Amino acid sequence: MSDERPQVAVLGGGSFGTALASIAADNGASVHQWLRDTELAAEINRSHRNARYLPDYAMNPAVVASSDMRKVLDGAELVFVAIPSQAFRDVVRKARPYLNERQILVSTTKGIQEDGFKLMSQILEEETGFTHIGVLSGPNLASEVAAKQLTATVIASDDALTRARVQTALGCDYFRVYAGNDRYGVELGGALKNIYAIAAGMAAALGMGENTRSMLMTRALAEMSRFAVALGANPMTFIGLAGVGDLIVTCSSNLSRNYRVGYALGEGKSLEEAVEALGQVAEGVNTVSLVRDKARQEGIYMPLAEGLHQVLFGGVPARQMAQLLMLGEQSSDVEFTLSREDVKQARRLEGDV
Ligand SMILES: NC(=O)c1ccc[n+]([C@@H]2O[C@H](COP(=O)([O-])OP(=O)(O)OC[C@H]3O[C@@H](n4cnc5c(N)ncnc54)[C@H](O)[C@@H]3O)[C@@H](O)[C@H]2O)c1
Ligand SMILES: O=P(O)(O)OC[C@H](O)CO
């Protein structure tokens, strides 16, 4: 008898891949999850728990884990790719012989490829040439999703079928899926917020207050949207879940790996020590260099990213950088209503600059 259930594949055995596989299975899909680690796959099938990444949460027992890519992709209608950005293209290449253009491919990865400043859905496009491509992003701490805490996310694609299928496959009483069509903006939002989560973790460890955190998050949002709009995204995307929503959660929670790296740095650890203690990937550490270089290249004003880069890689103490940023040029609150140039002009007339 053939299996009538929707067929879902998840590539990646980390915490988000695991949480996602479980949601799709809770929703009645037949789910196969690909991991490179054969032993962990066997362990998941035995205990229905991912002991390495989400040891405290039971998975839906219907999820079948495997390190055999062909088996995992066989018959899949919907494929989620939850692999860190540095390994993303390699894994997609490994999957490519078993993919076909009727499938829907969705990236969940919030990072940027160094070579060519590529986002993950662009890699999916380049490697496959398929049309049904999307990005899943939003305030989605994996362990909270696994605990079935009420959560919302965004499926962004210019392809209506991709949006509808993902809403059907994942939408349930604890996971609500909103649709968007600014794939680039949603994907950039997910990658950029990691930078500011590091800064927020650092500020918390240094004992800075709630006013400071609020200022940091709001100015981060201004900076993120300035950058994304300069590269072609829609500014309105940043008032959504994948913009301000994800920024809030990642800058506020020590469940975020990026926040935890920042916190460890604020406590005085070196970057190497902080990353090693984390034992997982914090995408923001790479993203800050890529974004800072891109911003310089394109002439985009990014004082927070520039400052954080100097703290992480230039040996500037975080507190000193915070003081420098406070004394930076006076600027506009909401640039979409009052431009930075207008503020400068008024100050010139005042004779202040
Ligand atoms: N963890 C979260 O809370 C969360 C939430 C939303 C989105 N995301 C995004 O989803 C993506 C996946 O996150 P995650 O937490 O599931 O996993 P992760 O980023 O911690 O990656 C771990 C997984 O990737 C695998 N991996 C690493 N290098 C590999 C390689 N060369 N070949 C094959 N597999 C490799 C590891 O074995 C492991 O299964 C990340 O980019 C993250 O930004 C994470
Ligand atoms: O653990 P982080 O810092 O990679 O962040 C997790 C998610 O992106 C939160 O939405």
UniProtKB/TrEMBL annotation:
GO cellular component: cytosol
Catalytic activity: sn-glycerol 3-phosphate + NAD(+) = dihydroxyacetone phosphate + NADH + H(+); sn-glycerol 3-phosphate + NADP(+) = dihydroxyacetone phosphate + NADPH + H(+)
InterPro entries: 6-PGluconate_DH-like_C_sf, 6PGD_dom2, G3P_DH_NAD-dep, G3P_DH_NAD-dep_C, G3P_DH_NAD-dep_N, NAD(P)-bd_dom_sf
EC supergroup of this enzyme: oxidoreductase
An annotated GO BP: glycerol-3-phosphate biosynthetic process
Pathway terms, separated by semicolons: Membrane lipid metabolism; glycerophospholipid metabolism
Record: residues binding substrate: 110, 257-258
Stretches assigned to the Glycerol-3-phosphate dehydrogenase NAD-dependent N-terminal domain: 7-159
Name assigned to this protein: Glycerol-3-phosphate dehydrogenase [NAD(P)+]
Species in which this protein is naturally found: Modicisalibacter muralis
Gene from which this protein is expressed: gpsA
